[in-house]
# Entry
Amino acid sequence: NAGVTQTPKFRILKIGQSMTLQCTQDMNHNYMYWYRQDPGMGLKLIYYSVGAGITDKGEVPNGYNVSRSTTEDFPLRLELAAPSQTSVYFCASSYSMRDKGSTLFAQETQYFGPGTRLLVL
Amino acid sequence: AQTVTQSQPEMSVQEAETVTLSCTYDTSESDYYLFWYKQPPSRQMILVIRQEAYKQQNATENRFSVNFQKAAKSFSLKISDSQLGDAAMYFCAYRAGGATNKLIFGTGTLLAVQP
# Structure
């Protein structure tokens, strides 16, 4: 059980290049997320997915695209890299379940991957 | 909109002593969840402790415990018997209940542990 894995660990891009950050989880989680972390800041949500074929925007989606063709994989695509996208990117997953003490759905804890450090020059 | 505030950019503690990290949040929701995550130099985010807003009892995980004051919207983390391995950035996070599941993070507190 590897949990959440991300590739690559580190990448340097030139302005205008494109790339895909890979994320895979083997916990059969419904929910997956992409965050970015800028220096000295907390994480900000880019996109998330509640299941295969379903994605939605988070707080900072501009400049990114995602797809969710399988439960396991949730790649993040940068089409035209810009210096403002220099950051550390984290993928996370969680399983949605009904909490025994609440009438609302309560999701399990988010499990994070090790991160991808991206530098755009 | 919900916000999470960590007012202590850096903290320091002596090995074996106790330290408390502060976190306040703002929300109009009644059903939500609060978390403390640890981020060591390896950068991976590791869950430390989780608290459901509807539970009055403070969560504990071994040496880690929280002081959850719902009326004051305060959620502090206490680390007892601090160890060198506790040195890391600590993030407080909020998540609303319901169908959406978006974590909102504070800006973090960098904890140093002195031998």
